[in-house]
Amino acid sequence: MKISSNSQCPCGTLIKYKKCCKPFHDGSNPKTAEQLMRSRFSAFSLNKSDYIIETTHPDNQDYTLNLQSWEKDIRNFSDYTDFIKLEIYETIEGKEESFVNFRATLKQGKLDASFNENSRFLKVKGKWLYVDGIFTD
Ligand SMILES: [Zn+2]
Predict the structure, then answer these.
(1) What is the Å distance from ligand 1's center to 39 Cα?
(2) N or C: which end of the chain has fewer CB within 10 A?
(3) Model confidence over 90-127: pLDDT tens digits?
(4) How far is the CA of 117 from the centre of ligand 1 (A)?
């Protein structure tokens, strides 16, 4: 999916993309884990696999040095999925470790691929990275 800078951000803040997640996609550093979480959701929606890879912690199970195949997996997932909505339920912001509890409403064709997750983020060299998540209901 492609959108214009003036469109509403895919992460659901009701703010224009250019004032919400675009600065992060363009290289500025999210200050909170929630900002990182939102910008990753919109990156998936906009098929920005580079951003997903850059913001994934090496401990994540998807992390691989085979960037080509990883990138392909992300692109396939993004192409195949409609990112309908992101709702943040709770955020626990720590200095080095943060948690974001959210619901992602996704569709894959006619299939409902929505899920609830409690994601864990770690700050490495001043940057928040996504480590892993536990599915919740
Ligand atoms: Zn956003």
Answers:
(1) 6
(2) C
(3) 999 999 999 999 999 999 999 999 999 999 999 999 99
(4) 18
**Cα–Cα distance measured from residue 99 to residue 90, given in angstroms and rounded to the nearest whole number:** 8
CATH tag, 17-136: 3.10.450.50
Amino acid residing at 28? S
- Quote the ligand 1 centre to 72 CA distance (angstroms): 24
CB neighbourhood size of 126 (10 A): 6
pLDDT of residue 15: 96
Nearest to 17 by CA among 32, 2, 34, 29: 2
- What's the whole-model pTM score? 0.96
Residue 66: φ, ψ to 5°:
-80, 80
Contact 93, 34 (CB under 8 A): yes
**Residue 41 C-alpha to ligand 1 middle, in angstroms?**
8
Domain locations along the chain: 17-136
